[in-house]
Amino acid sequence: KMAAGEAAGRYRSTMSKSKDPSGLLISVIRTLSTSDDVEDRETEKGRLEEAYEKCDRDLDELIVQHYTELTTAIRTYQSITERITNSRNKIKQVKENLLSCKMLLHCKRDELRKLWIEGIEHKHVLNLLDEIENIKQVPQKLEQCMASKHYLNATDMLVSAVDSLEGPLLQVEGLSDLRLELHSKKMNMHLVLIDELHRHLYIKSTNRVGQRNKEKGRISSLVKDASPVPLMDVTNLSTPRKFLETSQFSTPGSSSMRETSLLEIKEDTELDPEENSTVFMGILIKGLAKLKKVPETVKAIQDRLEQELKQIVKRSTTQVVDNGYQRGENLSQENQPR
Questions:
Q1: Tell me, what's the pLDDT at 167?
Q2: Which of 17-31, 241-255, 259-273 is predicted least confidently?
Q3: What is the DSSP track for 244-312?
Q4: Fewer Cβ close by (within 10 Å): the C or N end of the chain?
Q5: How many angstroms separate the CA atoms of 12 and 327, rounded?
Q6: What is the dihedral sign for C-alpha 174, 175, 181, 184?
Q7: How far is Cα of residue 326 from the mean position of the Cα atoms in its chain?
């Protein structure tokens, strides 16, 4: 009994000091384990039941006193719980949607990359088709340029077309005939340019001198001047050497034509290409350079130099004889058979 009393005292002191339910439970277990008497255990059990009844009564009283606040708290707690549950469900759904969007974006990215590559391929094919269409018109345009003697444009067009046909369009079997035709024209183009260059070097330049001499002779016959025909004045004649060494073609702001590069010579399709013989010869040389036929041009000039000079002498002699005969005829008509 003494042990039961001490255990009860410890139990009450523990209840008064500690608010922790686990501490209370441990105290009760310790009391029951240290008690060997059944009566003491029943007493302890009765005290526990009495304490529980008292707690129930106190709880009921507190519930009655705070019913409104308790109801509001319970409802608020239920609402919060429902909101938390709904939020969790929504977050779960959002995660699932994000994963789905991520997969779809991966698929779209692959599809867009495929479409982008196809777009590049189609653009390249369209460019090739446009280039083929333009190249098919080259023979006709080339014939027009050659007929109008715009040789630089013709050379650029021909070289560009052949480079395309033997480069990006090499595998196009339908252009094989056109490729052979344009390649053949490119191989023979320099012969036409060399002939034009010789014509301006040896024929057109001397023709201008002869024409000037004829005009002087005509003027002298009109004024009945019996003095001998003056010598040909070739000091102001434009020659290729003077094209490079004199400043007769210089423009304001430039010291001489020596500073003008061959690359700066351009062909005006609106003007007569042979109006300025010096510029025309520069265009011919530029075209030959584009055709990479400068060595062949130099060799042709060297081979034909003697022959062309002989022809100049022959033509000049014929002009002098004709002018002298015409002058003799005019003097004989004036009864001056000198």
A1: 81
A2: 241-255
A3: HH--TT--TT-S-GGG--GGG----TTS-TTSSHHHHHHHHHHHHHHTT-HHHHHHHHHHHHHHHHHHH
A4: C
A5: 164
A6: negative
A7: 70
pLDDT at 309: 87
Q: Considering only CA atoms, which of 199, 193, 201 is closest in space to residue 286?
A: 193
DSSP code of 201?
I
Query: Strand, coil or helix: what is 273?
Result: coil
Q: How far apart are the first and last CA of the chain?
A: 187
Mean pLDDT is highest, among 59-63, 91-95, 132-136, 265-269, for 91-95
Give ∠ CA 273-276-282 in degrees, rounded to 5: 80
Side chain identity, residue 312: I
Residue 49 has pLDDT above 50, yes or no: yes
Q: pTM of the full predicted structure? A: 0.49
- Residue 241 sits at φ, ψ, to 5 deg, of -65, -45
HSE of 160, CA atoms in CB hemisphere, 13 A: 15
Torsion of CA 88, 89, 91, 95, to 10 degrees: 130
* Rounded Cα distance, 92 and 156, in Å: 69
What 3-state class would DSSP assign to 251? coil
SS3 86: helix
Query: From CA 127, how far away is CA 130, in angstroms rounded?
Result: 5
Residue 209 has pLDDT above 70, yes or no: no
* DSSP assignment of 209-233: HHHHHHHHHHHHHHTT--SPPPPP-
Residue 15 contacts by C-beta under 8 Å, 6 or more apart in sequence?
24, 27
The candidate with the shortest Cα–Cα distance to 284, out of 146, 92, 118, is: 146
Percent of the chain with pLDDT over 90: 12
Q: Is 334 strand, coil or helix?
A: coil
Highest mean pLDDT among 91-105, 141-155, 156-170, 252-266: 91-105
Per-residue pLDDT, 237: 47
Cα–Cα distance, 37 to 32 (Å, whole number): 9
What are the structural domain ranges in the chain?
A: 37-97
- Closest by alpha carbon to 315, among 191, 195, 208? 208
Q: What is the pLDDT of residue 21?
A: 62
Tokens of 106: 């991966």
